[in-house]
Every structure is written in structure tokens, then in C-alpha cells.
Write a structure and sequence with these properties.
CATH class of the largest domain in chain C: Mainly Alpha
Mean pLDDT of chain A: 88
Strand content of chain A: 5-15%
Number of strands of chain A: 11
Chains: A alpha/beta (about 425), B mainly alpha (about 300), C mainly alpha (about 325)
Distance between the termini of chain C: 24 Å
Number of helices of chain C: 15
CATH architecture of the largest domain in chain C: Orthogonal Bundle
Structural class of chain A: alpha/beta
Oligomer: heterotrimer
Radius of gyration of chain A: 23 Å
Strand order of the largest sheet of chain A: 2-1-3-10-4
Distance between the termini of chain A: 29 Å
CATH superfamily of the largest domain in chain C: MetI-like
CATH superfamily of the largest domain in chain A: Periplasmic binding protein-like II
Radius of gyration of chain C: 26 Å
Number of strands of chain C: 4
CATH class of the largest domain in chain A: Alpha Beta
Largest sheet of chain C: 2 strands, antiparallel
Number of helices of chain A: 21
Low-confidence stretches of chain A: 5-24
Shape of chain C: globular
Number of domains of chain C: 2
Number of domains of chain A: 2
Largest sheet of chain A: 5 strands, mixed
Strand content of chain C: under 5%
Helix content of chain C: 55-70%
Structural class of chain C: mainly alpha
Chain lengths: ~425, ~300, ~325
């Protein structure tokens, strides 16, 4: 207690001192993960610098360490970063922990709930869900989609054999059942060809996001986001069916596919291994790049298929921009955000390569035709669903990984047992945090 | 005789330079102080928080919960599985490093052209960052585009996704990386063995095994044990390699569990408790090693 | 001076040397593969069977030093023609170099490399010198509670960095040492001291005390005996300790990541980040690793004679 007070006083003194010196030079630091969108943001921000003279630096760190570094700085009440482009799951921790600045007024003033696609506002900005309070500007929209080998699908010989075996035409799958059939059809290990590539990495959220694609489309839920009830929901028959399907798909993946995330799934296409591959849209530009992907010209994209009952959803990725409450340059940060949400800037953001969430830009035919995958992206952004955004989401993530990973990759137990155990785990966790 | 010499030298030294006492203090105290300052804060911080339910990601104050963290951790079967995985890993990788490292040192302990170059080359594996080594070996092990299966003609044998093989695969990478460490220390020790001892043994017609166990080993033992102590400590803390290369429960060593608890779940208090449990275990193991080292030195 | 060798000894010697060569080749093949990948073009980098004969290029090194992004639309022919040879290579790879105005934005690599050099060299010097002095003190003088003190020194290396990271980070933040060179230097010195003390003590213990005793009788001061007799004898130990401490400081990842940002961050957290969006660019990672390996390799090679010398005296043993 005493130590925290002392540290707090020290931090306060540093902040005050920094405040004195900061006014001399206009500089903003945005913190993001090390990937192309951060580079695009830097290019966009250079324009802001040209217009206003304020130097904006996008500072990055590799993805695996992004969360660690950001929260370490928050917990130390540090002012190294003025703006953070945080994961959608951080909203709970960021708002409840007092790390993010409340942007509700800002949203109202600029009518942002109408400017951005509604699903993105709820996913990237609102916490608690449905509570009407906003903490971040949707910056980089993202969802999971699918890439596939058009040439394999369009080969007349393949189409004939497929039709004979399964009774319907070989085409982009509209349901998960069809996707399973196609995966089985293309599973030819002796030819080094495999049916499908799915996420399996349990280090963070890859496996869970992959599973969510099945879960949400099958009509299942992770729980009730307002009442925190999970018993009977996360282990509902639909959820069990979805988990069983995901495990079945694991059978049709290339060998050694037990710890893969976006890199390997892209490699499944570039190395000509799989017929279909799941990945975040943010990583599809690499597939469209002829120098990186020898099959770029014959790679197509489709949005997450529907489940047996016709429901169709996609797992959400993406980040939103928040002002750090310990920043000493909050006024300057507000100005940057005001500039960023302008429609022309959002358009430029999309042109540079950023995945805008601005509704008008998304719907424009210009955007939808700009790349081979933008159409599927546009469709996905209106049906996205997210994981829990509560502050303890990481514990929930570890628990679901511990339950479904041994089942899917290790082949242990049954889907029902795994999900029943998960419901018990999560109930306990929510009780521990006083939500149930 | 020695006492007399010391007394005279002390008085002479006192006349001309620093006394033994000054030197002793000057040489030792700064280091000890430095280490205390640098370690005392983290140690006390961690110990203190291990008795609370503190979570660094929320601004709520820490509540004292006594030994609850420790009790929960020690009762958690997953934690025990992590420990047994770690134990297996430490034994396999450290054992492998010692055997390979010492073996290669024995082979190198003779004159041949370019000895310096070869020795430097053999040290290269440990000169790379663990994160990079993990990345590249993950690529090497891949059945579809990795070289190992190709070179050994293993087809699509699964190394890292295979629950049984994964730990050994990672241990092999670890051995590859750190055997040079053991090798260098062994070489230094071997070169220090006086040649005349070997000559005396040869004159006495001692067999190669006898020479090895009675002359070579005892003289190299102190350095070997230092290598063993440090490699064991490091293997116990191993995180990078296992984290990057595999995510199976069969390869989740305790350091990975600690990382997830501390930095993904932000259960700061609990992770401090786990760290202290680990510390106590390592202290116990190294204590045994050090006692053995002291006994070897006295021989 | 080798004794007269029997025939079996000669054969054994040849077999041993042959074994050394074979082992060296096998052991180093992954490293050779990493090094050669740095000079390959991206297309053949991960081919199986591995491409052994290829036209080397330095595209990967260009990538290492520039800040780039994927091309979202094909490059205009005019711009392509007007660009210098190295920029054309980047365009060929489906990327473009980020520019501010007309000047190319360099990546962080040169800065990080420089930081690595400063921090690793300084902390190694400190750790080795302090460690040698302390080891001598423990070896030659009777210290109260010596085994406990030594064990305490050993224990400073037992805590996993994960758990030490947060309190260290808070401590550093409170005194303003985050993102400074001196911060990391002190940290690495503290980290390496335990190993330095133990290893040097191991070497110094092997040096017979009789030499110093004789020198003292001859009128040397303790300090002079230390400098003139013990240090040269301990050269092997100093070289080995220096190499190991340098390697640790050079490759340290966890604290470099946590404690530093733009100004003082070293290279290790940077190299894996070369992964690039969506696809691993193994050539760039290999290039980064290759360049980063050079200083360590050169340093070790320079010290090779000291490392192998051993203790030349040794006639008197207890």
C-alpha cells in the first residue's frame, strides 16, 4: 500500500515534470503490434504531420509481446504511449482498470455510432456490451475468412468425381457440412495434398477463434454476455456438434498441424498443401502477393459458411484506438482522433491498406472491388461476433484452451465432456469475480 | 613456515600497498552489495504479492489471502503435470548436453590443425538467441517443408505435433544449442590436466579406462559440476524454446505456465507464489549439487 | 611434448580427428542452412529438397535495413523504372519501401545493433572484472559465511525472468531508467555476476596458492601478486567467462523487450519480428541472425588461443 502510494507519487511527479517539458514539442506516440497495418497507420499519420506539424510515431512490438508490454506500461501508470490500438478483448480490462479514457461524449459529438458499421461499434468500442459507453475508435476491422484454391475447385475432372461421390456440385462451401465434405475430398496425403488448414495454436486465442467460427455458425454461444450464465449454453447440443465438427476437420489437415496460427495457415496455401485455409483477413494481402504466393492468381476467398440451421457468423479480430488515461498529451490525442474519424481520412486509410470500419467506405463498390478478398471481408464485417471482453478474459481463454485443445489435437475425451468441464470452469471463474 | 611468511609479507605489504583486509573487502563487498540491491526488491516484492490475490491488470488493491495461493497451486493436478514435464525435460536435455559436450571435448583434447577454428565453429550454436533457434528448428522439424525429415528419410513423421515425441524434439534442440557450453568448460578443464600425470600413468602401463577415471575425471570434475549446476538452473527456467516450438500439454514446462499466469491471465499474486515454489525446488536441487561440488574439491 | 605413441594410439588419434570433423559438419549444418538462407531469394528459401546451388543475392539484407509494407496494388511502371536497383528488388518481392518525402525510412535494425554492441560490451566488461575480483577474494581469503554468500550469489540466477520482470520494470520506471542504455547494462551485469563469480572461482581455485606465497615472500604486495601472477594464469577462465557473459547479454530477449522501447532496445526482440505480415520471410530473419552472429563469432575467434591454453603450470598439486 505504502509502496503503491510512493510509486504513485513518483509517477505523478514524473507526469507533472513531463507535462512541463511536453508542451515544448508536439509529439504523439501510438502503440501497436508489429505488422503491416501499423506501417500503413504510420504512413497515414505522416499525412497528419504534414497537415498539422505534430509528429506522430507509431511504435510497435511483436504480436506475442504486444499485450504484455501494453499492460505492463498501464499498470505502472506510465506515459510512454499516448494512444494504444488495443485488441477488442482488452476493452474490459482497459475500461474497468482505468487505463482507457471514456470516449462516450466523443462518440456522441461526432455521431460515430452511425458512421461506423454497427457490429464494429459494439465489438471494438462498447463495454460493457449494450451499456452505451464507448472506449475506443474502431480502427482495424478484422474477422476470420477463408482462402481456397480456385484451380482445384474449378477443375472439371475434380468436379465430376465430387458430384458423383457427394451428390452436389463442387463449389465454394455454403455450409460447414459442405466444407467438411470438400476437405475430405481433397485429403490425399500420398500426393502431399490436404483438405483444409485450421487454427490450432493454444498459446493465445488462435484455436478458440477457429472454434468460434464453427460455434457461432452452428447457432451456439459462449454464454450469455449480460448475465454471465454459461451452463447449458457453452455446452449446448449445438456447441457440442460444432466442437465435433472442428475436430473432424483436424483430421484433414497437413501433418504436424497441432500448433498453427496465421503464418502456417498461409503457408498451407503458398506451399500448395491445402485446398482451403482459415485466416484473418489482415493476413490475406500476403496471399494476393505474387512474389510471396506462387498460387496468388488462383487463390480465392470466401466468408465463413453457415451452420446447419442457416445461421452465419464470423469470429471477430481487429483493434480499436484508445487514449491512454495516463498520457500527458490527451488534448493532442483527441485532435488526432478527430482527424482520424473523418470520412476522407477513413477512405485514405482503406486505400493505404488499413481495414476501415467506416460503414460508407465499406459499402462502396470501390472498396469491395479493390482486392480479391474485400468482398468477403465486407460480408463478414456485418456478421461478426466476439469472445468475452471482461477483464478476466485471458483466464477464460486459458480455461477453454485447456479443455478443447486436448480433445481436438490430442484426441482425449469427448466433445460433451470437454464442454461440460468448460462450463464448470467458467462458472467458477465468474463466481470468483463476483459476476455470478 | 607459511605463517611466518605471511606475517613478514603482511608487514612489508602494509608498508607498501593495500593490506589483505582491504583487498578482501574491496574485492567482495561491492559485488555483494550490488547483488543485494538488485535482487532484494524483486524477491521481497514477489514474496509479498504471493500472499495476496493481487492482479496487476486491474486497479483494485491487493487483499491478503495468506497461504491460499500456495495451497491452490500445490493441489492443482495441472501444476504437478507441468512439474513432471519440466523434470523430464531437465533430465533429458541436461543429461544429453553433458554427455555430448564432454564427449566432444574429449575428442577435441588433442593437437590437430585448425583446432582454434574448429572450436570456435562448434561454439556457434549457443551464440544465437533462443527465440531464433526455436523458430528455425520449428521449421526444420516440419514434415512438409522441413529438412530433418528429408535428410533422415523419415517421410511425414510428426515431431512437434506428436504428444510423445514433442518434448524429445525440443530437448534435442536444447542439447544442440548448449552442448558447446559444456564442451568449452570441459576443454578448459581437460587442458589443465598436467601432462606429466599422463606420462607417469603411461609408464606405469595404466589402461585407458584407469587413466580416465582416476586422473582425467577427478581433475575436470569441478568445472563439469559448475557446468551442470548452471545448465540445470537454466533448463528449469526454460521458456523460449518450448513456447515457440510446441503448445501441447505434454510440453508445457512450468515456466510456460508461469508466463501464462503472469502475463496472459494477469494473476500476479498467484504467479509470484508459483515462482517461489519453483525457487524452493531449484534451491533444494542446487544445494545438493553444491555440496557434492565441495566434496569433490576437497578430495 | 607427447610421449612416444603406440600404433593403437596413432590409429585412435586419427579416428578421433575424423570423428571431430564429422561431428562438426553435422552439428553445424543447421547453422550453415540459416546462413545460406540469408542469401537466397524468398522463393527458394524453404524448398524441399533444399536448394544447394543457387545464385546468391543480398535482397534479404536490403529488407533488413528498410521499413517496408506489402503492395496493395501493382507498382506503376514509371516509378519502377526510376527506382534504384535495390528498390527494384523490393518491388519484385511484392513490397514497397516506406518513404518520408523522398528519403527512405530505415528500419530499426542499425539502431538496435548499435545498442546491442554498447550494452553487451559494457556489461561484459563490468561482469567479468567484478566477478574476477570477487572470485579471488573468496578463493584466497577466509570469509565468514563463505558457502552461504556464494550460494546467495548463485541464487540470484534462479528466479525465472518472467517473475522478476514486473518488479524490475516498476523499479526502473520509478527511477526513470526504462529505455536507457545504463539500465540494461546494470541489469545484465547483475545477471551475469553470479556465473562470473562461480566460474572464475573455479579457475582461480585451480591456481596453486604457492606462487603468490612465493611472490609475497619476495616482496610483492598482495595486489601485485594478484595482477602479475594470478591474472595471467587465469586468462583461460577470464576468456571463457567473457565469452559466456557476452553471449548472454548479446542474446537476452525478455528484459530487453520489457525494459526498453525506441531508444535503447537491442536487436534480439527485433529479429523474430521480421516475420512480416501473413507470411514468414525466412530470408530476412536469416539475414538478421547472420549479421547478429558475426560480432559474437569474431569475438570468440579472437579469444580462441586464450580459451584453449589451459593452465600451463600445474606441477604442484595438492
Amino acid at each position: 500500500m505504502l509502496k503503491r502510494t510512493l510509486l504513485g507519487m513518483l509517477a505523478g511527479a514524473t507526469v507533472a515534470f513531463a507535462g512541463v517539458t511536453a508542451s515544448a514539442q508536439e509529439e504523439l506516440t501510438i502503440f501497436w503490434a508489429e505488422w503491416d497495418p501499423a506501417n500503413y497507420l504510420q504512413e497515414l499519420a505522416n499525412q497528419y504531420t504534414a497537415e498539422t506539424g505534430v509528429v506522430v510515431t507509431v511504435q510497435t512490438t511483436p504480436w506475442p509481446d504486444f499485450q504484455t508490454k501494453a499492460f505492463a506500461e498501464f499498470n505502472a501508470h506510465g506515459d510512454a504511449y499516448d494512444i494504444v490500438v488495443g485488441d477488442s478483448q482488452w476493452l474490459g480490462a482497459g475500461s474497468v482498470g482505468g487505463h482507457y479514457v471514456d470516449l462516450t461524449e466523443f462518440f456522441a459529438k461526432h455521431k460515430l455510432t452511425e458512421a461506423f458499421a454497427p457490429a464494429t461499434v459494439q465489438a471494438y468500442a462498447e463495454y460493457p456490451k449494450g451499456g452505451g459507453k464507448y472506449w475506443a475508435i474502431p480502427t482495424e476491422g478484422d474477422a476470420t475468412g477463408w482462402a481456397y484454391r480456385k484451380d482445384w475447385f474449378e477443375d472439371p475432372a475434380e468436379k465430376e468425381v465430387f458430384k458423383a461421390k457427394y451428390g452436389y456440385d463442387l463449389d465454394v462451401p455454403k455450409t460447414w457440412a459442405q466444407m467438411r465434405d470438400i476437405a475430405e475430398f481433397f485429403q490425399r496425403p500420398d500426393q502431399k495434398r490436404y483438405g483444409i488448414a485450421i487454427y490450432t495454436d493454444n498459446a493465445y486465442d488462435a484455436l478458440v477463434m477457429g472454434f468460434e467460427n464453427a460455434l457461432f455458425s452452428y447457432g451456439g454461444e459462449l454464454g450469455d454476455y449480460s448475465s454471465y450464465k454459461v451452463e447449458g449454453i457453452v455446452n449446448s447440443p449445438e456447441a457440442v456438434a460444432a466442437l465435433e465438427t472442428y475436430k473432424e476437420l483436424y483430421k484433414f489437415t497437413p501433418p504436424n498441424w497441432g500448433k498453427v496460427f496465421f503464418l502456417e495457415n498461409n503457408q498451407a496455401i503458398t506451399e500448395g498443401l491445402a485446398a482451403m485455409s482459415m485466416n484473418y483477413f489482415a493476413f490475406f494481402p500476403a496471399l494476393a502477393n505474387k512474389a510471396a504466393n506462387p498460387y496468388a492468381d488462383v487463390t480465392g476467398y470466401f466468408a465463413n459458411p453457415a451452420g446447419p440451421s442457416g445461421k452465419q457468423h464470423a469470429a471477430l479480430g481487429g483493434q480499436g484506438m484508445s487514449i491512454v488515461s495516463y498520457s500527458t498529451k490527451q488534448e493532442e490525442s483527441y485532435k488526432f482522433l478527430e482527424w482520424f474519424v473523418r470520412e476522407d481520412v477513413q477512405k485514405k486509410w482503406a486505400e493505404l491498406g488499413g481495414y476501415t470500419c467506416n460503414a460508407k467506405v465499406l459499402e462502396s463498390s470501390e472498396f469491395r472491388n479493390a482486392t480479391p478478398y474485400n468482398e468477403a471481408f465486407y460480408q463478414s464485417m456485418f456478421m461478426v461476433k466476439d469472445f468475452w471482453a471482461v477483464p478476466e478474459y485471458a483466464e477464460l481463454l486459458t480455461q477453454i484452451n485447456n479443455r478443447i485443445y486436448p480433445f481436438i489435437v490430442g484426441g482425449e475425451g469427448s466433445a460433451k465432456d470437454a464442454l461440460d468441464g468448460l462450463a464448470a470452469d467458467w462458472t467458477e471463474t465468474f463466481k470468483k469475480y463476483g459476476r455470478l | 613456515m607459511a605463517v611466518l611468511a605471511k606475517l613478514t609479507s603482511d608487514s612489508r605489504a602494509a608498508a607498501r600497498g593495500w593490506s589483505d583486509l582491504t583487498i578482501r573487502n574491496l574485492f567482495i563487498i561491492p559485488t555483494i552489495l550490488f547483488l543485494i540491491v538488485f535482487n532484494i526488491f524483486p524477491l521481497i516484492y514477489s514474496l509479498g504479492y504471493s500472499f495476496t490475490d493481487f492482479r496487476a491488470s486491474v486497479s483494485e488493491p491487493a487483499n491478503f489471502v495468506g497461504l491460499q495461493n500456495y495451497r491452490e497451486l500445490l493441489a492443482d493436478p495441472n501444476i504437478w503435470r507441468n512439474f513432471s514435464v519440466t523434470a523430464k525435460y531437465v533430465i533429458v536435455s541436461v543429461g544429453g548436453q553433458m554427455i555430448v559436450g564432454f564427449g566432444v571435448a574429449l575428442l577435441l583434447n588433442r593437437a590437430f590443425p585448425f583446432k582454434g577454428l574448429v572450436t570456435t565453429l562448434l561454439l556457434l550454436p549457443m551464440m544465437m538467441s533462443m527465440a531464433v533457434v526455436g523458430l528455425f528448428w520449428k521449421l526444420l522439424y516440419d514434415p512438409s517443408w522441413g529438412i530433418i525429415n528429408y535428410a533422415l528419410g523419415l517421410g511425414t513423421f510428426d515431431w512437434l505435433s506428436n504428444p510423445d515425441m514433442a518434448l524429445y524434439a525440443i530437448a534435442i534442440t536444447d542439447i544442440w544449442m548448449w552442448a558447446p557450453f559444456v564442451m568449452l568448460l570441459s576443454l578448459a578443464g581437460l587442458s589443465a590436466v598436467p601432462q606429466h600425470l599422463y606420462e607417469a600413468a603411461a609408464i606405469d602401463r595404466a589402461g585407458r579406462w584407469y587413466t580416465f577415471t582416476r586422473i582425467t575425471l577427478p581433475l575436470v570434475a569441478p568445472l563439469l559440476l559448475i557446468a551442470l549446476i548452471f545448465r540445470t538452473m537454466e533448463a528449469f527456467k526454460t521458456f523460449d524454446l518450448a513456447f515457440i516450438m510446441s503448445g501441447q500439454p505434454t510440453t508445457e514446462v512450468i515456466a510456460i505456465r508461469l508466463y501464462k499466469m503472469a502475463f496472459q491471465e494477469w494473476q500476479t499474486g498467484r504467479s509470484c507464489a508459483l515462482a517461489y515454489i519453483m525457487l524452493i525446488i531449484v534451491l533444494a536441487i542446487t544445494n545438493i549439487y553444491v555440496k557434492y561440488l565441495n566434496r569433490v574439491k576437497e578430495r | 611434448m607427447a610421449a612416444v605413441r603406440t600404433r593403437s594410439q596413432r590409429v585412435f588419434h586419427r579416428v578421433a580427428v575424423a570423428a571431430v570433423i564429422v561431428i562438426t559438419l553435422i552439428f553445424l549444418s543447421p547453422i550453415y542452412w540459416i546462413g545460406s538462407t540469408a542469401f537466397k531469394s524468398r522463393a527458394i528459401a524453404t524448398s524441399v529438397p533444399p536448394t544447394v546451388i543457387f545464385a546468391p543475392e543480398i535482397t534479404s539484407f536490403i529488407k533488413l535495413f528498410t521499413r517496408r509494407v506489402q503492395l496493395t496494388k501493382p507498382v506503376e511502371p514509371g516509378a519502377y523504372e526510376a527506382s534504384p536497383w535495390w528498390e527494384k528488388r523490393i518491388y519484385d518481392g511484392g513490397e514497397r519501401v516506406l518513404k518520408v518525402g523522398d528519403s527512405v525510412q530505415l528500419s530499426q535494425y542499425p539502431n538496435r545493433f548499435q545498442n546491442s554492441l554498447i550494452i553487451a560490451i559494457t556489461s561484459t566488461l563490468l561482469a567479468v572484472s567484478m566477478g574476477t575480483l570477487t572470485a579471488y577474494g573468496f578463493s584466497r581469503f577466509r570469509i565468514a559465511g563463505e558457502p552461504d554468500l556464494l550460494f546467495f550469489i548463485l541464487s540470484t540466477r534462479m528466479l525465472p525472468p518472467v517473475v522478476v520482470a514486473i518488479p524490475m520494470f516498476l523499479m526502473y520506471r520509478a527511477v526513470g531508467m526504462t529505455d536507457t542504455h545504463i539500465g540494461l547494462i546494470i541489469l545484465y551485469t547483475a545477471f551475469n555476476l553470479s556465473f562470473s563469480v562461480w566460474l572464475m572461482k573455479g579457475f582461480i581455485d585451480e591456481i596453486p596458492k604457492e606462487y603468490e606465497e612465493a611472490a609475497l615472500v619476495d616482496g610483492y604486495t598482495r595486489l601485485q601478486a594478484f595482477l602479475k601472477i594470478v591474472l595471467p594464469e587465469a586468462a583461460t577462465g577470464i576468456a571463457a567467462t567473457a565469452v559466456f557473459c557476452f553471449i548472454v547479454a548479446w542474446n537476452e530477449y525478455a528484459f530487453a523487450l520489457m525494459m526498453t522501447n525506441r531508444r535503447a532496445q537491442t536487436a534480439p526482440p527485433f529479429i523474430p519480428a521480421q516475420i512480416g505480415s501473413g507470411l514468414t520471410d525466412w530470408t530476412a530473419i536469416a539475414a538478421g541472425t547472420f549479421l547478429f552472429l558475426l560480432p559474437v563469432a569474431i569475438f570468440t575467434f579472437a579469444l580462441r588461443n586464450h580459451l584453449l591454453r589451459g593452465v600451463t603450470f600445474g606441477a604442484i598439486r595438492k
